[in-house]
Amino acid sequence: MNNLTATSNPLKNSERLLILTPLARFYDEYFDNLLKLNYPRNLIDLGFITPKTHAGNIATLKLQDALRKVQHGPKKSRFNKITILRQDFGTPTGQSEKERHAMNAQKDRRASMARARNSLVFTTLNPTISWVLWLDSDIIETPPSLFQDLAKHNKQVIVPNCFQRYKENGVWKERPYDFNSWQDSETALNLGKTMKDDEILLEGYAEMPTYRALMAYQRDEKADKHVEMLLDGVGGTALLVKASIHRDGAMFPTFPFYHLIETEGFAKMVRRLGHQPYGLPNYLVYHYNE
Amino acid sequence: MNNLTATSNPLKNSERLLILTPLARFYDEYFDNLLKLNYPRNLIDLGFITPKTHAGNIATLKLQDALRKVQHGPKKSRFNKITILRQDFGTPTGQSEKERHAMNAQKDRRASMARARNSLVFTTLNPTISWVLWLDSDIIETPPSLFQDLAKHNKQVIVPNCFQRYKENGVWKERPYDFNSWQDSETALNLGKTMKDDEILLEGYAEMPTYRALMAYQRDEKADKHVEMLLDGVGGTALLVKASIHRDGAMFPTFPFYHLIETEGFAKMVRRLGHQPYGLPNYLVYHYNE
After folding, report:
1. For the purposes of burial, counting CB atoms within 10 Å of the CB of A98, is it exposed (0-12), middle (13-18) or buried (19 or more)?
2. What is the pLDDT of residues B232-282, one digit of tens each?
3. For the structural domain made of B10-287, what CATH number should be given?
4. Where along chain B do its domains lie?
5. CB pairs under 8 A between A and B
6. Which end of chain A is less enclosed by CB atoms within 10 A, N or C?
7. pLDDT (tens digit, 9 = 90+) per residue, B180-207?
8. Which of A1, A114, A254 lies at the smallest CB-CB distance from B123?
């Protein structure tokens, strides 16, 4: 705030980063990857929010345990500040892969996720923070320089491409995972116009083809990792936001906002605030495979 | 967050209050009134945001000076925490009474005010806070029990009636001042439907009659001070909000949101989040008379 900068070279200015993670389950791989990030820990605040459920209690205990192991030694090698919030509202549906993606459960689930994200950012963003990196608890593999690589683009909002590794006939392969980063289509916009105020557009369902240009499908393995594309919707599995954008009011709508909610609604809000979200189709982070 | 409460009797639960003030000018009367509030200071955080202008520098210095005078002695008699932010964006227009109310300047001015409010709340709301009291820097007289009186109603969002004292022929009188607290009208809603996405409805201009029911005109001097009315728009000169509502995502739109911005857009957002704002037409706070 007070002479804060958020530049393409954060380290040079000792810019502070807040990493925010809504954490329903604790994966060792998520935490190991977090520890591998090579931005100085003393410039990083961590914020987590966990549900007040049995599974949430277990996740919280595991998280606290893991954090205890790293938060000792000289102050310079510790995270600057850690906040763990407990969600004081329920999560609406089960969390198995199948349940999570059933279309009629999506709206409630994503509204609840948006609420968790809002609680996190409203509660942990302090005056010293320049950048907010949203990193979901099921992101288990990223380049160690994830933050610096994204910040280098000096965008208000930027999102890498989220893939998933899987084994087929004993061979490791990878496939697109997060379909919430897209460029809008006439079809989707027109669909929106016919909808009631409270209906939402969802991506990735055969019964509602949007013909949006999905970043997930635009990866070119051989091309430059730093190729940018303009986005109208963004996913939140990994998402870098300049703190000033949140401070200007950008939050995650829990209600249909131009027929969009959560991170997709967030991208629309960013655009209403006069900014352009970007994506990096060839820069990958990897999602847990359940 | 973590087992926080926000009840009709905040003192009983030692609930923490955050008082937020966008401060363009420093009035002694504002500060004196702030000091007269009789909720325990050690349960109160203060947050201010001042513009980065010459006038803003002066206001900041005066504020710091005034705060220094009260922040000594036993910890129990001091405010728990004080944050002063400097606005890293301009204020669009002059600030004289006449300039402030010119209709075409309103939109920019209120968008800028919304941005200041968002910066404040996103940056100062920490996990211990139960309540947020918005109190403008030109509110110079309130009952000392303002917070407790409003909290007693146990509403998500509640707003008193903002009046102004003035002298006429040597006699002190009072008149309504803030016209942003209202119940919607068919006329205004229909007007909204004919508007472009980026146009806004404003209250208090002859050239755009809305026929909304303004709380400003519904004061009954002889009636109970605690009579409630439902509101669709709220003003922000004094405004009590449960912190959980902000955490759920309620912010002050800087862009037209259902053709409303700033505190009026905030009220619409609160309604989109499923809550009902209330007003107290007979409970008065007083605005500075320029």
Report:
1. exposed
2. 999 999 999 999 999 999 999 999 999 999 999 999 999 999 999 999 999
3. 3.90.550.10
4. 10-287
5. 83
6. C
7. 999 988 888 888 888 887 888 887 777 7
8. A1
